[in-house]
Design a protein that fits this description.
This protein is mainly beta and 127 residues long. The chain has helices at 85-95, 97-103; strands spanning 6-15, 19-27, 33-41, 44-46, 59-63, 68-72, 75-77, 108-114, 121-126. The strands form 4 sheets. A 3-stranded antiparallel β-sheet has the order 1-2-3, with no helix packed on it. The chain starts with 5 loop residues before the first strand and ends with a strand.
Length: 127
């Protein structure tokens, strides 16, 4: 069964520095129509640093939307010109020099999964 939805129209509701938001009207396989809210993002990379003893290292960041600090993976936007996911991840670890020294080894891409976001891919690298 073909589950493809076809875009009929699109209207941008917001355009920001790192993301845009739009509402699309789509036709469904059963002939009905439905709205789809889409967030377009510049893309980003999250890194899960693991030290030589097997400890996962997280960073504490204040997040305005939650009005509190959260523990999270080091991450960064891919908004520094042309770079791939590995370059972005290394840049983010270098920003936190202690993490880069403790965890970085040459990484290879093990998995690529498409269509998870408007960016179209998810890469998992194993060091």
């Amino acid at each position: 069964m073909d589950m493809t939805e076809k875009q009929l129209s699109s209207e941008y509701k917001f355009r920001g520095r790192i993301m845009t938001a739009r509402v699309d009207e789509v036709s469904l396989p059963n002939g009905k129509t439905a709205p789809r809210e889409v967030c377009e993002h510049v893309g980003g990379v999250g890194v899960l640093p693991i030290d030589k003893d097997g400890n996962v290292i997280l960073v504490r960041q204040f997040r305005y939307a939650f009005d509190t600090e959260l523990l999270e993976m080091p991450a960064g936007k891919m908004d520094h010109g042309p770079e791939d996911a590995e370059e972005c991840g290394i840049r983010e670890l270098k920003r936190r020099n202690r993490l880069y020294r403790r965890t970085h080894r040459a990484a290879r891409r093990d998995l690529s999964v498409s269509r998870l976001s408007d960016r179209g891919d998810l890469s998992v690298c194993r060091a």
